[in-house]
Specification:
Strand order of the largest sheet: 3-2-1-4-6-5-7
Number of strands: 7
Distance between the termini: 32 Å
Shape: globular
Helix content: 40-55%
Strand content: 15-25%
Order of helices and strands: EHEHEHEHEHEHHEHHH
Largest sheet: 7 strands, mixed
Radius of gyration: 17 Å
Structural class: alpha/beta
Length: about 240
């Protein structure tokens, strides 16, 4: 599967990201010039939607729920491959060729990138621990830049429209359809959640929610816990 023959659609879920949206879309266009770019806006109350126009191929709108937004974006997409990317990420050079290389194996249904958090040693420790914990627990979150074949996306029914952990649920569904491969290329993830909530507070929150998820605590309860711990000190649009 060569990138020149494959049609890629990049779906970017957003909510109140006026300060980031244009620089990110310019960056994405530079790194993935062949891709169709779809911004899935969840009812932003700032200028996010307006600022996206002219910098993406499609702007779609839905209710403010990341799973719903990504599903709406996927339904609007024309690509053979769907790639879900967060607006505060920096994608690697040669990203489309890397995705095409991974999906060249017909037994592979999708994949994801390793993440790297910048600057401080604590972030390096966090992203390394999260990577190996994810392997052990067979879990991946959306900041890893999940991608898959359109057919696989349709077969699993898209992202479960739950209030939290929709990306982990989707990843697990995808793995049941075939192999899901980790690229050794890195997505540079923003540390803004850690800086707003607090490094220790957010790390403990993620650990607690992951543990409760494993023990099948309902998604609504997980979302309530997340909001209680993380959203009082920061913008709720960063949740999910």
């Amino acid at each position: 599967m060569k990138s020149t023959r494959t049609k890629f659609s990049v779906i970017v879920p957003v909510f109140n990201e006026a300060s980031l949206i244009r620089p990110f879309l310019q960056h994405l266009r530079d790194r993935a010039p062949e891709a169709e770019i779809i911004v899935a806006d969840g009812g932003s109350t700032d200028d996010t939607a307006n600022l996206s126009v002219g910098f993406c191929d499609q702007l779609v709108r839905s209710e403010p729920n990341r799973a719903v937004q990504m599903n709406v974006g996927a339904r609007a997409a024309h690509g053979d491959v769907l790639w879900f990317v967060h607006v505060d990420a920096e994608v690697p050079q040669g990203c489309l060729n890397e995705i095409a290389r991974i999906l060249d194996d017909p037994n592979v249904v999708g994949g994801y990138f390793r993440i790297r958090l910048p600057r401080y040693a604590v972030y390096r420790l966090t992203d390394t621990f999260a990577h190996y914990a994810g392997i052990l627990l067979r879990m991946r979150c959306g900041d890893h830049g999940l991608f898959c074949r359109r057919r696989a996306f349709v077969d699993v029914g898209g992202f479960p429209e739950v209030p939290l952990m929709e990306d982990v649920e989707f990843f697990r569904l995808l793995r049941r359809r075939g192999r899901v491969i980790c690229s050794q290329k890195r997505i540079l993830a923003s540390p803004r959640r850690y800086e707003t909530v607090g490094q220790v507070r957010l790390t403990l929150a993620y650990g607690l929610i992951t543990a409760l998820y494993i023990f099948r605590v309902p998604h609504a309860k997980l979302a309530w816990i997340y909001r209680r711990i993380c959203c009082k000190r920061r913008n709720p649009d960063l949740a999910g």
